[in-house]
Each structure stands twice: as structure tokens, then as C-alpha cells.
User: Fold ABC transporter ATP-binding protein YtrE from Neobacillus kokaensis.
Amino acid sequence: MITINNLSHEFVIGKKGRQTIIPVLKNISFKVEKGEIMTIVGRSGSGKSTLLNLVSGFIRPKDGEIWINGTKVSELNEAKLADFRIHHLGFIFQSFQLIPSMTAFQNVELPLILKGVSDRERKQQTEEMLERVGLLEYQDHYPSELSGGQQQRVSIARALIVNPPIILADEPTGSLDSETEEDLLQFIKELNRDLGITFLIITHDDKVAEIGHRTIELSDGKIVEEGVLV
Ligand SMILES: Nc1ncnc2c1ncn2[C@@H]1O[C@H](COP(=O)(O)OP(=O)(O)OP(=O)(O)O)[C@@H](O)[C@H]1O
Assistant:
């Protein structure tokens, strides 16, 4: 479902003539199978976020290939990437990334507007999704009127609304207390089991890493360990 071949990336910082090259990912290859939860761990600065940004297409790799569902995303132009994301990928971020001036309903509905879904269909699908994440009665609340766990559920509902086969998550429980974290991890497992959604999750939290069917450890931009956890 996701295939990474010989992926390398570096950042160039500083002004012309005094540039420094920072190699961040060094010849990484791995696969994520359909229906799998893959977790990627590693210390701060090991390249986890860079890897997720590359898979998302937010940045382009210096070298190597990224294939998702048979499409070579590392070669798509911006317009095709945007279209690809809306049909194939859902995103969950540590900081939720909800739009503060929109209600829970409007935040979840937004991807359907981008997809061109009709008014009536949008209302029905958005309500169904809010129900699924247990937040229908909070649909008119703004993000600031919701707890951290509820905000993360809104962001998951927004990710799920377009039925993505894959969800990419960046420290999904990083802003949650341990009880809420446990609830969210159970919910991710349910989504994986019941809907077959494939997850690629980066984290430095062992509890999150443990929900992975497999886990990869990055160190200094390289894979140092790849193992089956469950
Ligand atoms: N836009 C950028 N420009 C220059 N250097 C960058 C950029 N983004 C990341 N880096 C560098 O790349 C390295 C890897 O960063 P990355 O954010 O991928 O690590 P990480 O494992 O996700 O860390 P954390 O767990 O702290 O988020 C770091 O040395 C960082 O300073």
C-alpha cells in the first residue's frame, strides 16, 4: 500500500556561498501493507516528521521513490498531489489543526466541500461521522469549547470523512492526558480492525508504538530496527 524505495532527503540552510547541508534521511526503504498499523519511533531529530512530510507529499525527496496505492507520489505535481491527498490520505496531527472559527460540524464538513459533495449529502455524512466519533451533540461547539480528546476526535472525523484508505498520524496523542490517550489508541485500533484503514504513525511514545503491527526505529536518518510487535 505504501512503498518507500531508497529514500534520501537533506535540507540546505544558510545563504548562498555559506550553505550547510543537513542530511536527514539516508537511503530508507520499507513497505506498509494494506490493513496494517505501522509505527515509526526514534529520538527527537531522527527524521520522523521529515519522513511523514515526504510521504504526505508536503516536501519532495532529494532521492528515491514513494509509491502509494500504485501511484508514484514523489513525482506528482502540486495539483495532482492535492487531488491525490483528498482521495487517499487522512491526516491526524498532535496539535489537531482544527480551524478555530469553525464549529465541530464545519471542521468535519470541510473536506467534503473541497471534494464538491452536495449540501444535502454533506449534512448527512457529517452528522453520521460525528455520531461515529461520539460527538454529534457537540456539533455546534467551537474547538475552544471542546476538551483535547474531543478536539482530536473532531480531527479524526475530519480525516475519516472522505473514506481514506490510509491515515498518516504525527504524534496523535502528544497533547492528550494518559486516559484520553488510551481511549484514542483503542479507537485507532477499532478503525483499523473494522474499516481496514491502514495507519502510518510517528511517535516517541512507547504506548503509541505498541499499537503497531510492526514498528521501525529511525536513528540519525537511518532505519536501525524493524520488528514485529504483535
Ligand atoms: N525545514 C527544515 N530546514 C532545515 N532543517 C530541518 C527542517 N526540518 C527539519 N530539519 C532538521 O532535520 C532533522 C530531522 O528533523 P525531524 O523534524 O524530521 O525530526 P523528528 O524525528 O520528527 O523530531 P521530533 O521528534 O523532535 O519532532 C533535524 O536535525 C532538524 O533540525
